[in-house]
Design a protein that fits this description.
Structural class of chain A: alpha/beta
Distance between the termini of chain A: 68 Å
Helix content of chain A: 40-55%
Order of helices and strands of chain A: HEHHHEHEHEEEHEHEHHEHEHHHHEHEEH
Number of strands of chain A: 13
EC number (chains A, B): 2.6.1.1
Number of helices of chain A: 17
Oligomer: homodimer
CATH topology of the largest domain in chain A: Aspartate Aminotransferase, domain 2
Number of domains of chain A: 2
Protein name (chains A, B): aspartate transaminase
Organism (chains A, B): Felis catus (Cat)
Enzyme class (chains A, B): transferase
Strand content of chain A: 5-15%
Largest interface: A-B, 78 and 78 residues
Pfam family, one (chains A, B): Aminotran_1_2
Strand order of the largest sheet of chain A: 2-10-9-8-7-3-4
């Protein structure tokens, strides 16, 4: 009997991302290169892994005392505690007052999925979300799929080639009352004390709920504490917030995606209520999150020697990033490429804007087989001794061929 | 400035499960025991781990050629392929015709979460779900939380102390048109050929969508193929279906919860559409599922010697379960406990009904500190040489104190 398919009305889903990578993979040019990997790359063009990770992996595999039982629904307790200490510092007010907690989440989007589900249920009157453009995909889509109205913003001023704190202030001031504001790495957005005060006053007045996004603590400045200092402002002003704390990237265990949905509440009682609701959601979402990544990270964070070694490796990575940026700038200067390239070294972290316009980016992709996202934000760890000359010469060509719009 | 909490209206969530385990943990009696663990226990009262797993873990940790890059959004390809071959057999029609596929899922509930999200969007006219009572929690709750109307059913006839295929047939015949039917382990539900034909005819006529639940292939009969033979009936009758294939339990890697949402469609084109939609959902749900569990399982399944060792260990576990059941029955017979206890050995797999009524169960919990769920379904791997005498004597006491209702 011929049957009609149950799936007859299901169309092929539009590919949302990865099309640049796909085009790159299909390119047969031997000189092709991809400068938009999510992960940090080592000097040898391999995904960066902290030296301490391999050792810890082996130790765990050889440990006869470990059992492989289910973890609690909330995840690995010691992992959550160690991660919160890393984020806030051991003696932070929220830790001492027992009003910060977390749920162990899965993958890169788990914390956003969980947080968004909670906000969908418990903040029904505020279904507008603001998110920085570069994180619209994948995190913004999580909110969008759930029916939130998602708006994008950007700190980066492509004309002035710099990050502009006023953009952030203006976006907040124009945002609707009670919206959710996803705030990512503010490292390059050097707000003055009075700008911070103005930002937080606006957010308080409009009851904007902050949802922080910490994808790689320590990779901006090389200093773990400095990178998350801005959270202290919010804590001290009595904000309640969520934070997606991702930990896989700073250890180099990309295939064990693991993180925390961090909750800061005004007091312990409120915190426990929120965590209990999150537990119910977690149970439905995955029930028993995989432990491997959490175990590696916890082993490192809870051992001072290993933690020291990890921090050292992280610092080395950040120094490499800064050095690469310096070299790119210097080479462009030697080539006499028009324009100031200070904006390259003014930005921190692996992902920074080259400061090219879309035609120049297109030139690099089409003519030079250098794959770069449309906004020109690249991963500087993809540049190494083998490809830096080709890349800087190509940028020079692109700039000379297509004059900037200013 | 004192602030009102954002979380003011969030109540403490009701604890949904684990209350039996919690009571057990709070019990100070030295003789207390818990017979409802989800995982299989070894003779020594530890979670069972296949002997081949430890070796494989170590091999993976020592492998210098492995990188730790992000996996594709759909998960580890080799893992999905190996798992599908395990489920259907290498030469199955759906594999040959390229119309079966899968998505690598996370934890115990990941496949249900993903499948339910898909069905919520793409089968809006069929939002009723039938699920076997013992799986209502946790899987049924996933559907319920998403707004499906969830109904429970049970094969087990507590009067006749046996599994009754007619119950399944009746439930299907009374179920609404187009509903979703979650079908778990049918090992004990010995349908005749004509009963299978009747069941599938009903399901076809009513356009009922089967969502199979394979939590531990091989643990019913000790034979991997025999355990999933019933899927062939559905394939041969041209059904399209989903299947949650969980793999952690049969390898003993409970803390690396991993599985597959299996999709069978009428042809490859339909399959690709469904998989593309699932990919979009997966990206929002977790994005980059952890690889560890999948890597261990794939290493074992793709190596004939390791696979043989794993199958052998699984068979050993099933033999232990059968032996324990025989011993329990024999001891109850020697004690002269009223009633036939054949139903214990008639059931297969680790989780089977003791055949006690709720007062008898309560007697065991309250008087004997033996923690058993209300329906009397226990995990027989929790019984070992150290506790079998206490357990059987207590069952005897419970039965003598409280006569059964028949």
């Amino acid at each position: 009997m011929p049957t009609l398919s149950v799936f007859l009305d299901v169309p092929l889903a539009q590919k949302l991302e990865g099309s640049l990578l796909k085009t790159y993979k299909q390119d047969n040019c031997p000189n092709k290169m991809f400068l938009a990997y999510k992960v940090c790359m080592s000097n040898k063009g391999q995904p960066w892994v902290s030296s301490v990770v391999r050792k810890t992996r082996l130790q765990i595999a050889q440990d006869p005392s470990l059992n492989y039982e289910y973890m609690p629904v909330m995840g690995m307790k010691s992992f959550i505690q160690a991660s919160l200490k890393l984020l806030f510092g051991r003696h932070n007010q929220v830790i001492v007052e027992n009003r910060v907690g977390g749920v162990h989440t899965v993958g890169d989007n788990g914390a956003f999925q969980l947080g968004a589900q909670f906000l969908k249920i418990w903040r029904q009157d505020s279904q507008a979300v603001y998110i920085i453009s570069s994180r619209k995909e994948p995190h913004g889509l999580v909110f969008q799929d759930m029916g939130f109205k998602v708006s994008e913003y950007s700190f980066w001023d492509p004309k002035k080639l710099r990050v502009d704190p006023n953009v952030l202030l203006n976006v907040v001031e124009q945002a609707p009352h009670g919206c959710i504001f996803v705030i990512g790495n503010t490292g390059d957005c050097k707000l003055t004390q009075s700008q911070w005060a103005r930002l937080m006053a606006s957010m308080k007045r409009k009851q904007i709920f902050p949802f922080f996004d910490i994808p790689y603590q320590g990779l901006s400045t090389g200093d773990l504490e400095e990178d998350t200092n801005f959270l202290q402002y919010f804590v001290s002003q009595g904000f309640e917030f969520f934070c997606s704390q991702s930990l896989s990237k700073t250890f180099g265990i990309y295939d064990e995606g693991v993180g925390i949905l961090v909750v800061v509440a005004l007091n312990n009682q409120l915190l426990l209520c929120v965590l209990s609701q999150l537990m119910t959601l977690t149970r439905a979402l995955w029930l028993n999150s995989p432990s491997r990544g959490a175990r590696i990270i916890t082993s490192i964070l809870c051992n001072p020697a290993l933690q020291g070694e990890w921090k050292h490796s992280l610092k080395g990575l950040v120094e490499d990033i800064m050095l690469t940026k310096e070299k790119v700038k210097e080479k462009l200067r030697l080539l006499g490429t028009p324009g100031s390239w200070d904006h390259i070294t003014d930005q921190s972290g692996p992902h920074s804007y080259l400061g090219l316009n879309s035609e120049q980016v297109e030139y690099l992709v089409k003519e030079k087989h250098i794959y770069i996202p449309k906004d020109g934000q690249i991963n500087f760890t993809c540049i190494n001794a083998c490809n830096i000359d080709y890349i800087t010469q190509s940028i020079n060509e692109a700039v000379l061929s297509i004059k900037g719009s200013q």
